[in-house]
Amino acid sequence: MKSNQGVAPEERFINPYNFVPLEAQCERQPINAYKEGKELYSGYIDCSIHLKTPIFIPNSSGECVLSNMKSKNDDKYEKSYDFFSYDDLSHCKPGDRKEVYSVPVIPGSEIRGVVRSVFEAAFNGCLSTIDTGRVLHRRSAANDVKKPGILRYDTNQKKWFVYSCDRIMLNRRFDKLGDKHKHGKFMSNEEYNGYDEGQKIYFKKSDNKYDNKYYMPYVVDDFFVGEPTQDMDNLWQEGYLHKGEPFGTKKHHESVFYFEKESHRKYNKLTVDEKTIYNFEAVLNLYEENNNEKKEGSPHTGYAAYKKQTLSKIKNKEDILVFYSAANGNQAQYLSPSMISQQVYYAKIKEMLTKNGGYEPCEDRHCVCPACALFGMIPPDEQNTRSRTARQALGSRVRFTDATLLESSLLKERKDYYRGDIRLPAMGEPKPGAVEFYTKKPSDYQEGALFWTYDYLVKKEGKTRTPIKDSAFGIRGRKFYWHSENWKQHKDKLHGKSTEFLKENINTNMTVGVRPLNHEKCPAFQFKVYYEHLTWDELNQLKWSLDFNDSACSHKIGRGKPLGFGSIQLKIEQVMQRTIDLQTGEWFMKQFPDTCREELPESDAMKDLKLITGWESKPTATISYPQIRLERTTEPREQQNNVNEEASHRWFTENAKHDKKVLPTIQEEMSANEASNWLKKIKVK
């Protein structure tokens, strides 16, 4: 790779993944059209696997088998997995496998998945593994603050509406005598915990806005809960308590929603469609799911109580306190329990794929892409009966065996196959909400625009939202991971640290113990690929997907790909063809000579694939998820890196404000002439 120009080496980073672009259209045809009138071949391919880095594939029959460590916070055992083998670990107790080792096996299903991904990218297949039912979501931008409102059902119109309202701040932290003037009257934990979400509360408003800042709300100067009395003066107003979630030391007030008693402004009644209600429920589900991944002991509950009450209130058509975004003047969208929140987008993955060349997964055996024609497909069960699914399913014409070690190369000690048990950060799910990386800039994106989402872009002038046209949106393509030596940075041994240290620091949701293979000692694995009734072109495409017709390229397999694990080279040892003796009628196998390998013309997708899978030409720049650089800090560099691991989302926030960088293409990452497009750490105070 050429030297970095324009970006200091220590400031540049390459995102662990990139995308091989889609072609203009996913071409499909009936399965018979792939074979009609062509000579067909059957046989098997002998292959070997050579490890370039440590790899890890879990034996999921036992999930706590290497460690018997428990977290102090929740008393759960740390998840730890042995490498895949034919041993059943379902009856193992925590820590039983600490000193027990199996002969490793690489499952054929893992190899098949890796090879199919390359085949789909190289030869214009559909996106077979994408979850078209998954909701697209992302945390709203810091400058995209939602407004308070009351979601109310109109029994006459039989529709939901959001009524805009005001919000006042209720002091929940500052309880000293002198705090009331600035922060308002303090509500104790005992009082607060005794009230439900939406509790009616009477309050007096402060004379000035909080901290005398024009953009802040007023604070509750006094309050009481109960029935109003006749001697109450006109300064008392009626409101509703909204119970949020803790937010570290930054949050010190809760909210009371109300309609100003003597306000001259008009409160809006905004329409709410069924999709918005559905997305609101999806947001609450996301909070619950994300809360399960948070650090044990976190006071955040994922809006558990709010969700339970809200679902009940939706069913019973009762009022709900929400925050919302206004659209088209009279429509409420993106309902949520907080001002800055997760947003579930209206755009759907399947519709986007359909409009971006028709790359949604194949569903009909009579209309399949080249990859499904070869590897087979099972249509989604959505609204399908089992009988229809069975009729539409298509069997595979290739079969991958498990990869096993050669008997002649088995090591004397099984322990030597492995590097030693280590602790890795748990791998999260892909985050396609990061449109800067997963999508292309919309064609109607204008210079000076603040940011875009799957639904809209925000223009700088007046921060107005403009819906994104379907034709303006482009999907980046198919995800692949760069090769790297980053695995060397992960030296957190699973055993050996003091028990008390681990109990204090372990997070059973955020780490996992693994036993990776030692690429320096582990011998090669061998496996077969059986093929049935392939055309000559299909056979050559399959071979290309196995070894790229280039010994400098390698696949990625198993867990930990973003961390540098999983690099393997597949080699074709021989290709055998099943044929028939025309005189005796007997079947026999014969070897294809090496000269029978056809040099395939390389498409743009194939060229990009060879770049990102290149082991010998892998990037020398730092490969990591987006990083920030703390501008003013006395912390050592290692501690700054820890901040990056926990808060890389800040990079996206700052990037939206200033640089507005998007993910460079694979070609741009590998070209010094494209240094202006490279990603770099963003300095923050």
Overview of this structure, please?
The chain is of the alpha+beta class and 685 residues long. The protein folds into four domains: 1-16 and 624-685, no CATH class; 26-129 and 400-429 and 480-612, no CATH class; 137-141 and 271-344, no CATH class; 166-266, no CATH class. It is built from 15 helices and 33 strands. The strands form ten sheets. Strands 3, 17, 18, 27, 28, 29 and 30 form a seven-stranded antiparallel beta sheet that branches. Strands 13-7-6-14-15 form a five-stranded antiparallel beta sheet. Strand 9 and strand 10 (218-224) form a beta hairpin. The radius of gyration is 30 Å and the shape is elongated. It starts with 11 loop residues before the first strand and ends with a strand. Mean pLDDT is 87; it is low at 498-504 and 636-646. This is TIGR03986 family CRISPR-associated RAMP protein. Residues 632-654 are annotated as: Disordered.
What's this model, at a glance?
By secondary structure, the chain is an alpha+beta fold. Helix content is 19%, strand content 23%. The strands form ten sheets. Strands 3, 17, 18, 27, 28, 29 and 30 form a seven-stranded antiparallel beta sheet that branches.
